[in-house]
Amino acid sequence: MLKKVISSHKFPYLLFHLPTVPYIAWLSLKARSLFFYGACNPIIHHNGGGSRASKTYMLRNVDRKWLPTTILVEPDRPIDQIETALAAKNLNYPLIAKPDSGERGKGVVKVHNRDELLAAVRGKVHNVLIQEYIDYPYEYGVLYWRKHGERQGHITSISHKDLFHVVGDGTRSVWELASAQKDKKPFLDKAKELNKDRLDYVPVKGERVVVDFVGHRGRGTEVVDAGHLHSAEMLQVFDNITRDINGFYYGRFDLKAISPDSLQTGEGLKILELNGTASVPMHIWDPRLSTYHTYRELYRHWRTIYEISRDNHKRGIPYISFSDAISYLRGWLKSDQQEHA
Q1: Please, are residues 300 and 307 in contact by the beta-carbon 8 Å criterion?
Q2: What pTM, to 2 d.p., does this model score?
Q3: Cα gap 156→281, rounded to integer Å
Q4: DSSP 208
């Protein structure tokens, strides 16, 4: 019962993490820094990523085959220049627009035409990424880490994100099928907005139609522990992906895949985002896992961050200063207010 409550998307995020605060405080005391985690991934905090983690900066050295085709749009860039850049990359609608610096699916929109594209980029504080829409059927979160000097890393969480979708029965419309899912009621307004052009569409029997493309619990996604997919072959894939990301040691990959086998071979795999220490092992949201397991994993999560940060600090990588932490918080609040404006 308790796990069901704390796993709800309505349960306050900060309250959920409250039981980890004493442990984080203890780790901060041992590190002699409240912001020890800043040494974990210097590519984010100390290597040009800015006050907030830049998605493009973190992934700039990753082989293009792993990434969606993307352009970076600076604030208030003229729409004609944006369309020229899209044409040069052979990018066509629909497209995904999202903040280059953002978290938890905030500000991510699907654009279908010029007017929606203009609305997605107009008046933004931070750069915006415009990406090809990857319509692969599977989405995963993979938490990977590797200490400095290690040849092989570690995968400590694999989660399957089952996006809010409907399955056709040949008689009911997309909207009727979505409305029939009582547990999805809190997400129907957003789904209606996203699917206004196909609410009356009647999918054939067995046809799967995704009604919300953002893989987040606050958008109706169900998270399932997929730890059974872990293998030496999968680990090798992620070792290869991360080998050239200098200054990255810990984080979660959010990926699209053609099939579960894509995680084992790398074929049909696209990286949507790479998140740093602000990410969590997403499999903990699986309602089948106990509350004890959830917080045990979160304690392990923070212990690993501390150990990597401590080792990096010994090599001369600084922790985050108090003034930089305040600057980051101000930037986060400003962006958060803008995305909800």
Answers
A1: no
A2: 0.89
A3: 7
A4: E
- Separation of alpha carbons 213 and 219, rounded Å: 9
B/e letters for 324-340, b = 16+ CB within 10 Å, e = fewer, are bbeebeebbeebeeeee
Q: Is residue 150 helix, strand or coil?
A: coil
The tokens for 6 are 């704390």
Strands across the sheet containing 269-275: 222-225, 154-162, 138-145, 250-257, 269-275
Locate tokens 């619990």: which residue?
Answer: 217
Q: Is 71:130 a contact under the CB 8 Å cutoff?
A: yes
In 3D space, the residue among 222, 205, 115 whose CA is nearest the CA of residue 168 turns out to be 205
Residues in the chain: 341
- Asked if 286 contacts 223 with a C-beta cutoff of 8 angstroms, the reply is yes
Q: How far apart are CA 219 and CA 284, in angstroms?
A: 17
Provide the 3-class DSSP secondary structure of residue 211: coil
Q: What is the pLDDT of residues 101-147, one digit of tens each?
A: 755 556 788 888 899 888 888 877 678 899 999 999 999 999 999 99
What would the DSSP string read from start to end of 214-262? --SGGGTPEEEE-GGG--HHHHHHHHHHHTT-TT--EEEEEEEESSTTH
Higher per-residue confidence, 299 vs 42: 299
Q: Please, what are the domains in the chain? A: 2-68+134-163+221-339 (no CATH), 69-133 (3.30.1490.20), 165-210 (no CATH)
What are the residues facing 154 on neighbouring strands? 145
Maximum Cα–Cα distance across the chain? 64
